[in-house]
Amino acid sequence: MPKPSDAERAWEAVLRLHAALLPRLDRVVAREGGMPLGWYDVLLELNDGGGRLTMGQLAERVVLSRTRVSRLVDELTGAGLVAREANPDDGRSAFAVLTADGRRRFLAAARAYLPAIEREFAPVDADRLAEVADGLEAVLGAVTGEPAARERRSRR
């Protein structure tokens, strides 16, 4: 069998790292932040989207549960963290709107999530970690055609 290419090695590492860290971070956010990581992801995008996005916009932006966005919004609505509003410009779509309690709970969960990310990556040399982040952002930019979103780095 031929030696894997660097692209194959990078992809495998990304997938394995995601699989290893996601459950660990989910446990921290659930235990210390009081919500599942999927909820945090939706609240994060709503917060960054000015508190209001169409369901389609939200589905394009979430990272963890693109296929479950509608169900997650239903759960968040039931918990009083998000409200649904009809879109007056398009009767086929609706807005997901971050409530004041949703914003408060999101910020509280961020106080657990962001330090947990730092702890998980702490064993890696800071210069090496910066190289990896820069490299992954470059690949992301090449794939999406968008410039690297450095401002998003501290939120995920």
Describe the structure.
The chain is mostly helical and 156 residues long. Strand 2 and strand 3 form a beta hairpin. The longest helix has 28 residues. The mean pLDDT is 92.
Task: Please provide a brief summary of the model.
63% of the residues lie in helices and 8% in strands. It is mainly alpha-helical and 156 residues long. A three-stranded antiparallel beta sheet has the order 1-3-2.
Query: Strand order, biggest sheet?
Result: 1-3-2
Low-confidence runs of at least 5 consecutive residues: none
Examine the secondary-structure arrangement and name the CATH architecture.
Answer: Orthogonal Bundle
Q: How many distinct folded domains? A: 1
> Would you report the number of β strands?
3
The main sheet comes to: 3 strands, antiparallel
Write the element-wise H/E pattern from the N-terminal end onward: HHEHHEEHH
Query: Which descriptor suits the 3D outline?
Result: globular
Features:
156 residues, mainly alpha, Arc Repressor Mutant, subunit A, 6 helices, globular
Chart the SSEs and their pairings.
Blueprint: H1 6-33, H2 37-48, E1 52-54, H3 55-61, H4 69-78, E2 82-86, E3 94-98, H5 100-121, H6 126-144
Antiparallel strand pairs: 1-3, 2-3
Helix pairs in contact: 1-5, 2-5
